[in-house]
Design goal:
The protein has two domains: about 190 residues, Periplasmic binding protein-like II (D-Maltodextrin-Binding Protein, domain 2, 3-Layer(aba) Sandwich), CATH 3.40.190.10; about 190 residues, Periplasmic binding protein-like II (D-Maltodextrin-Binding Protein, domain 2). The chain is globular and about 70 Å long. Helix 10 packs across helix 18 and helix 18 runs antiparallel to helix 19. The chain is α/β, with parallel strands linked by helices.
């Protein structure tokens, strides 16, 4: 999921809706070199008019795509299309699509967050994709586990195509662990708390990083799944935050702050990535975008590594595929599905990883030598294979994630006890689940 509650992104969203200029990444058709006027007439009569495939993408993903040669390569493979790429901030894209589903300009296809699928499907706004899956012969075992089923809505229909896999892992400073006498990172939640305590001095070094906004929601989701709990019940009709396993996860979350493993004092909670770079945070839960960021920091070469998230009662962690989504009202659905087919080619999946850092969702992409030689990818693959969960296939998932995030704020800052905060959150979530 991508979720931000910052004023900056709110401003970016307003700009995205008010500015009329977009950033297309298109390649014009080459001029025809015809031998005669007669040949020209015959060619015009037999040619197919090029149509536009409008692709909406969020944030850095859109920028990376615009700066790459992938749109041009798509047009080479599918000369009947021109690609138009439009960039939005993550929140802006969600809200723009939501508004457009009730009447307005729609893209032909867009890259979204996994939990949007249930929300938009509940509104009847998405094109089913099982026919596309069958036509292309995409087998389940050619993708990471549960990639397609992740988007099967409660009506039994799959409404999105897996695009990339967003797994979470534990990044850690190998140099700081070694200085403290540890030869390996923690493998269980108990070890995470024990090592975190020894690595924290409460002043200028803390064992585990504080997570901001939507990242904190992801962090807590991992703790819930590791405790064998969930945020909602299996059929997505009721909140389960008040159940024993989830309360236990919430108390563990709070204990990390009470023990000063994560800074208890709000003034000491610094930005996660920079804190990791500076050695202020020794360990941090994060996603694949950190790979590129860390590989660009030569001063940390040989001083960091990544591993699967520590386990609790289960090895499950937070993670999910992010989807390509085709609106039911798209004007060029054929072009949309051709774009998706192009992006699912193993070679393109591998190249998109090299461009964006995103984890491929097709297993064949990992056989590419450029990826198979990268040992930092293994923890992400291991995490996907062990099993991941996320909030999905329910209405109002975006709003539900914000309720959970506010609950966490109340708990860590001692505004409410875990049991009371969870009960208050469930009252709000149950109303949202009713649609």
């Amino acid at each position: 999921m991508k979720r931000s509650f910052t004023p900056l992104l709110a401003l970016l969203f307003l700009l995205a809706l008010t500015l009329t200029a977009c950033q297309p990444a298109t390649t014009p058709p080459p001029p025809a070199e015809l031998e005669s006027a007669e040949d020209s007439t015959e060619a015009d009569a037999g040619s197919t008019e090029r149509t536009v495939v409008t692709v909406w993408m969020p944030g850095d993903e859109a920028r990376w795509m615009m700066e790459s040669d992938l749109p041009a390569r798509f047009e080479e493979q599918y000369p009947q299309y021109d690609v138009e790429l439009v960039q939005f901030p993550w929140d802006g894209l969600h809200d723009k699509v939501l508004a457009s589903l009730t009447g307005g300009e729609l893209p032909d296809v867009f890259l979204g967050a996994d939990h949007w699928v249930g929300e938009f499907a509940a509104l009847g706004g998405l094109e089913p994709v099982e026919g596309f899956q069958a036509e292309k012969g995409y087998e389940e075992d050619a993708f990471l586990p549960n990639a397609w089923e992740h988007f099967r809505y409660t009506d039994g229909t799959i409404y999105a195509v897996p695009a990339v896999f967003e797994a979470r892992v534990l990044f850690y400073r190998t140099d700081l662990l070694e200085e403290a006498g540890f030869s390996a990172p923690p493998s269980t939640l108990e070890e995470l708390a024990e090592m975190g305590q020894e690595l924290s001095n409460g002043v200028d070094q803390f064992g585990v990083a504080h997570q901001e906004s939507w990242l904190d929601f992801h962090f807590f989701s991992w703790l819930v799944y590791a405790h064998n709990g969930d945020l909602v019940n299996e059929d997505g009709t009721a909140c389960t935050l008040t159940e024993p396993a989830t309360i236990e996860a919430l108390k563990y979350y709070k204990s990390l702050y009470e023990s000063n493993i994560i800074p208890l004092d709000p003034t000491k909670r610094v930005e996660t990535f920079q804190g990791f770079i500076d050695g202020y945070y020794v360990m941090a839960e994060s996603g694949p975008w950190w790979l590129g960021l860390l590989q660009d920091r030569s001063e940390l070469e040989g001083k960091w590594a990544a591993t699967v998230l520590p386990s609790g009662k289960t090895e499950l962690s937070y993670g999910h595929p992010n989807p390509w989504i085709v609106p039911a009202g798209a004007t060029n659905k054929e072009g949309a599905f051709d774009w998706i087919s192009f992006m699912l080619q193993p070679e393109i999946q591998a190249e998109w990883h090299l461009i964006s850092g995103q984890i491929p969702v097709t297993t064949a992409a990992f056989e590419d030598e450029r990826l198979s030689s990268n040992e930092n990818l293994q923890p992400f693959l291991d995490s996907a294979l062990r099993g991941t969960r996320s909030l999905r296939n329910v209405p109002n998932a975006e709003a539900i994630s914000e309720v959970v995030w506010n609950m966490l704020s109340d708990v860590r800052d001692n505004v409410a006890a875990p049991e009371q905060a969870a009960a208050d959150a469930c009252n709000q979530i149950n109303s949202l689940l009713e649609g």
